[in-house]
Specification:
The protein has 321 residues and is α/β, with parallel strands linked by helices. It has eight helices and 16 strands. The two termini are 16 Å apart.
Length: 321
């Protein structure tokens, strides 16, 4: 039994499986809760701590909204409490269905490894694959799709692309350390999904012109020191030492589609049964990876329950064999 992905939903699935007497191995190409580790260092969750709990283990936070570091500590503690078998920094490269389930080939720093699993739970999330702009210059080293800390960009001209939480959080932190920040967004105002305690802060900075904004604008090209923007049919050039393209992330389903897994072409969602089983027998999915093009539908809060559904289904199937 293998769980691919050591995020909160993958860990929750492994806990649910182990509680039913199964012996899951979790594999992740990064560290435990790799996505949370790569969140901005000062980030606070939108959710309260109780909505992030897994495995019936209380999440005690000293804040109304838990911090990134508190979450890292909590999920480490859960894995230790349940003595989960986890292989970190081991990337799944190939998965082949066979009569006994699946053969999995992974790449570790010690070399390639092979495993046989009767069932697989796919819980890889979506944070590892940025939603690319697909414009010239996006691969330049001063263009980033992740933001962790503002300090290195003090006194720089920084462009932040986007108008949702990740873009707004980056803009706030960059302005605080003294960066010259311009926010570029194709919408007409900050997105409605922005956290309610953050919205007044960014709106105040915009009103005071401490953060400049170009609404209804799209970046068309990035150069080493400039970006080219189209706004209502007019193209202009803007200085930029650093660019943060905070344009969201999408699940990586390339391996799933190579296996012949069925996906809804309109939504991008994998076709799943009520038990979270894909069109490939024995392969289940948990967490935000099930959401296709709209990653706002599943969070830790609801994705944490997928493991219970999957574990119940797998246990019931084993009883009938």
């Amino acid at each position: 039994m293998i769980v691919i992905g050591a995020g909160p939903c993958g860990i929750a699935a492994a806990v649910a499986l182990k509680k039913r007497g199964l012996t899951p191995l979790i594999m992740d190409k990064g560290c435990i809760v790799n996505s949370i580790y790569h969140y901005p260092m000062s980030m606070r969750f939108f959710s309260t701590a109780d909505n992030l709990e897994i495995g019936d283990i209380p999440f005690i936070s000293s804040h109304a909204k838990p911090t990134r570091d508190e979450a890292l500590n909590y999920y480490r503690m859960v894995t230790k409490h349940y003595d989960l078998n986890i292989h970190t920094f081991e990337k799944v490269e190939r998965m082949t269905p066979n009569e006994d389930g699946f053969e999995i080939v992974s790449q570790h720093q010690t070399g390639k490894k092979r495993y046989q699993a009767s069932n697989v739970v796919w819980a890889t999330g979506f944070y590892d694959q940025p939603n690319l702009l697909r414009i010239p210059g996006e691969s330049f080293p001063h263009v980033h799709h992740y933001f962790q800390h503002a300090h290195p960009y003090s006194h720089q001209k920084v462009v932040v692309i986007g108008g949702r939480n990740s873009a707004v959080d980056a803009a706030l932190e960059l302005e605080f350390v003294g960066a010259d920040v311009t926010l570029i967004y194709r919408g007409e105002h900050i997105h409605d999904s922005v956290k309610p305690w953050v919205r007044p802060l960014i709106e105040s900075l915009i009103e005071k012109e401490k953060v400049k904004v170009l609404w209804k604008s799209e970046v068309k090209k990035i150069e080493p020191n400039y970006i080219w923007i189209e706004k209502e049919g007019c193209v202009q050039r803007l200085e930029a030492d650093t660019v943060f393209a905070m344009t969201g992330y999408v699940p990586n389903l390339s391996l799933f589609t190579q296996l012949g897994g069925e996906i809804d072409l309109e939504t991008g969602c994998p076709i799943l049964s009520e038990e979270m089983e894909t069109s490939i027998p024995g392969l289940y999915m948990a967490g935000v990876v099930v959401t296709g093009h709209d990653s706002t539908k599943v969070f830790i809060e609801n994705g944490r329950y997928h493991g219970e559904i999957i574990a119940t289904a797998i246990k019931a199937k084993k009883r009938t064999v």
